[in-house]
Amino acid sequence: MAFSRRSWPQRCGFLVIGSTVSRIWLTSQYCAEMSALSQFRRVDGVSQRCSVMRFRHLCKQLSTSTLSCSPIANYFSELKTRGLVQMSYPSNLDTDFKGDLLALPPVAYAGFDPTAKSLHIGNLLIVVNLLRSAQFGVRPIAVVGGATALIGDPSGRSAERETQDKDILMENAKTITAQLKSIGNNVLKEEITVVDNNEWFKEMPMVDYLRNCKQLRVGEMLRMGAVRARLEGSGISFTEFSYQTMQAYDWAMLLKKYDCRFQIGGSDQLGHLNIGAHYIKRTCGEKFAAGVCLPLVTDSAGNKLGKSVGGGDVWLSAELTSPFHFYQFLRQLHDTEAEQMYKLYSLAPWEDVLSKIQEHRSNLGKWIAQDALAIELTQIVHGNEGLCTAQRCSRALFQGSMTDVRSLSRTELVTLFGNTIKVARSEVGTMGDLADRTRTDSIKGSALMTKGAFKVNGEKIIDNTTPLVFERIVLPNANDLTLICWGGCAEYMSAGRAHSKLQLLVLKTYRDFLRAARPLDQSVRQQVQTEFREAAKRYHPSDILLIEHNLRRANNQLKQLKTGSVTSIGNITIKRKQENDGGS
């Protein structure tokens, strides 16, 4: 049971420690008990002083069922509900240390080392869940590791990092600082606090640094998982070994500046949480600090989410990954991946998330979870303008909306449709000439025009003798670009074009599905045909990785279909044979 702010005078006990005032939220059954405790008795609206130890002892005596949570405890509970707490320091934080958790100040931080020009979609999990804390009255703080990036975090690395140029790292730090503030502005009403740890490290003398490390124990540092693994393997330099001392000092500085004693980090940060919390306890008057490690998000193949076969990431920078490609990456996720990401990344209330997932499961094939995730995260990362651009590009590409194509800027057009073919005016005089010039294979374009396979800015051109007027074919927002589309009709698709290996694999998979579905109800066969046709409309030739991903998915489903162990494929519902026989 919780109480509104209006009930504070009647329902709250107050504790004054130095200049800090803490509220203890009580249910009615504890009001009398609390008033009987002299150390918490209110006198003329002002609390009497008591010791920190007495306060902690009292909190541990009160059950969380009767003592409602503090902002940090509410925040931690939400993370746990969504499956976001892979590990915590200390472990069993909400049971064995619930009193300490309740007493934590409403401030949380996460750190980001600027080892690249931009954050990526894996980092976004930490960013959005740091911002989530604001929903519970917690102040989010982002720390950009301008200094720690110069050293290198050994966590998750089997070998020493390559030393990067200092100027590049400093430039990266500025870019990521701006990126974090931009994302914060898209979500929060107030600007997020972003600090660079280079502020307190750049002028620190070596002697002061070593004195600050006095409370750190080498034995504990050697027991850290990442360090131990490196010592047993390729070894570790003193530089990377000392990284944990700097991160521990970061936390202590944030405590002094912002009263921050709660941290969130990636799945490999438990050792740093341990070292940092112990450092705070020894240097900051026995103060309790805690933190959580968020899970590593992977795709169905176990790879880090956002990693392509070529090794690139899905970046949060519009220059490295356009809003359209960011949106489409999320829009094309596998159903199970979309559900997982929606639970972990969405800032919508948990009840709304569960409702959306249930709607998604009831309408498989309509991409409900993917749509919701793509819209929300694109807006968070790129703002309303970026989301509108991504949706315009998507409509133009997948729905053939020439209204949207004509509204796109030159940059958006080049980003969307990729490489261009340069054609000089002197080279072409008719639409047939243009068709021949824009073919990249041995088939004559002017011959295919009569089959309805040639479109200029969305308009089908059949007569290859039609004079070409440049002023009429260029796009409004790009007076040197024309959109040429090939295909889109049965005659062209069967006109003897040489299929690539990938196209043959798609067709073979389709035929295998139809053969496997023959013993089943006729409606299932029709659903298979519909599913493949709808999928074909969504693909663009540049989406080779998406096609390969869905082929792997299709082949796995095909195996299950042949063995009768699958209950659904996309939006296809298949009753098992034993269910039909047994009438379950």
Automatic annotation (TrEMBL):
Pfam family, one: tRNA-synt_1b
Listed GO CC annotations: cytosol; mitochondrion
GO molecular function, one term: ATP binding
EC number: 6.1.1.1
Class of enzymatic activity (EC top level): ligase
PROSITE patterns: AA_TRNA_LIGASE_I (PS00178)
Catalytic activity: tRNA(Tyr) + L-tyrosine + ATP = L-tyrosyl-tRNA(Tyr) + AMP + diphosphate + H(+)
Localization of this protein: Mitochondrion
Keywords: Aminoacyl-tRNA synthetase, ATP-binding, Ligase, Mitochondrion, Nucleotide-binding, Protein biosynthesis
GO process terms (BP): mitochondrial respiratory chain complex II assembly; tyrosyl-tRNA aminoacylation
Family matches, as NCBIfam families: tyrS
Family per record: Belongs to the class-I aminoacyl-tRNA synthetase family.
Protein name stated in the entry: Tyrosine--tRNA ligase
